[in-house]
Amino acid sequence: MHDDLTYTMLHDMMMKKFNLEANYPLNLSAKLSSFDDTFDITDDPENNESNHKNESHFEKSESSFAFGDYNEYEDEQIAFNDDVDENPQPNYQKGRNVKVGNIFDNKEALDLAIILKALDEGYQFLSDRSAPERYALKCFHFNECDWKICATRWRDTDKFSITFLNDVHTCPKTQTYHNHRNANKKVIAHLLTPKLQDTKRVLKGKDIQQDILSEYKINISDQQAWRGKDYGIQQIRGSPYEAFEMLPYYCYNLERKNEGTITCIKTDEKGVFEMLFIAIGVSIRTFVHCLRPLLIIDATYLKGQYKRTNLVAVGMDDNNQIMPISFGICKGETGPCWHVAIALAVQNEFPLAFHAVCCRHLMMNLSLKRKKTKGLFWKICKAYTTEEFSTEMSNLQDVQPDAYHKLCEAGP
Asked: What are the boundaries of the signal sequence (predicted)?
């Protein structure tokens, strides 16, 4: 409110407001933005004739988390004067340095620092008051503990400054619940980030729980571990939703940078993603000029939030080595996305080509449980005459009729 307010002006204002006598011992608490500490200034009534230009007395408690130990200041000589900095800068602190006066980028950064401190010291806390402009926490055992921290928004920015901290716990630090209540997914992700960036290591839920227990001596649930891992991966790689949103840009740049590339994205009437097709230009040219006139198509299932099927078409060279030609994503190996669509595409685009189905994949779809039935199936696949093929098919019909009908639907 008063950027140029000096100690003398403040003193005179207080004396006049409360009608104090000139020799009244006045004690003021002041906080300067250029210092981390809040200090007390006490007037000396016996030597108060120099218009307050005498040396002030600075007092602080012997044990305070905000001030630290006296040893911190043994080698420091700090000169104080009555001038107030007209443009104070924030005393920005990162990590777990939680004390009065520290300023954090936003409320989320402040919350993370306090939770990490709680994990280190083995206690839990509750929200006492939370609003866009202020933030307050109290100990989980607040009925028997006076631990409390308060923070407010710093000026007109998103930063938050710690304004009050009682860092003394009068409650036992034993955990009331099996799992630490404040170890949310953001905190777990923060702790796991270095390990998640190591692509050689596969972190399982039990591994995460064991790592947190050994390092912080606290327990977290399996659900906390998985949520933290998922959130951490999204922070590093982005969310699946964001990845799908980038598909049009990806396809556009592929077509620009790789001549002959063909891409297609199909959406429903609401604009929701359904299918994707990509054929790389250099792969198409390699197939035409260097590979056998043979395309092999297979699929695998995607894991994660969006359950889809990844389709791939590969070519084969003279050494029986394969190379991807095209790939795509669809809902599954059913309907217009798989068998019927493939057969129709072969008929329309390659009418003179021979189309066959992989025998092993076909066998897996027949649910052949008996060893004798499996042997009969392979006799059918390897039959080289119409008579032999018809005989073995008749035998399968007698042994397992449902498998026989599925083979008839697939076609010879």
From this structure: none
| Cβ neighbours for 19, distance < 8 A, ≥ 6 positions apart | none
Which run of H or E residues covers position 249? helix 247-257
Cβ distance 182 to 140 under 8 Å?
Answer: no
Instruction: Check: CB of residue 266 under 8 Å from CB of residue 274.
Output: yes
- Among the residues of 301-412, which ranges form H helices? 339-349, 359-366, 371-381, 386-399, 401-410
Packed helices 205-216 and 222-237: angle between N→C axes, nearest 10 degrees = 100
Which tens digit of pLDDT belongs to each residue from 282-313? 999 999 999 999 999 988 888 777 788 899 99
pLDDT score, position 338: 66
Q: What string of DSSP letters covers 155-195?
A: TTSS-EEEEEEE----S----SSSS-TT--HHHHHHHHHHH
Nearest Cα residue to 100 out of 65, 56, 143, 144: 65
Q: Is 299 exposed, middle or buried (0-12, 13-18, 19+ CB in 10 A)?
A: middle
Task: Indicate whether 15 pLDDT > 90.
Answer: no
Which H helix or E strand runs over 127? strand 125-130
Q: How confident is the model at residue 378 (pLDDT cuts 50, 70, 90)?
A: very high
Residue showing tokens 């449902």: 402
Average pLDDT over the chain reads 78
pLDDT at 49: 41
DSSP β-ladder status, 295-301 and 309-316: antiparallel
Q: Which residues partner with 152 through β-bridges?
A: 134, 161
What is the predicted pLDDT for the residue at 133?
A: 87
Cβ neighbours of residue 147 under 8 Å, at least 6 residues apart?
123, 125, 138, 139, 166, 167, 168, 169, 170, 171
What tokens appear for 93 in the block?
């602190």
Instruction: Tell me the residue type at 404.
Output: Y
Classify the C-alpha dihedral 80-84-85-91 as positive or negative. positive
Task: Give per-residue pLDDT as tens, 159-177.
Answer: 999 999 999 888 876 544 5
Taking CA atoms, 343 is separated from 237, 340, 346, 356, 412, in Å, by 38, 5, 5, 9, 13
Give the pair of three-digit tokens for residue 390: 């018809």
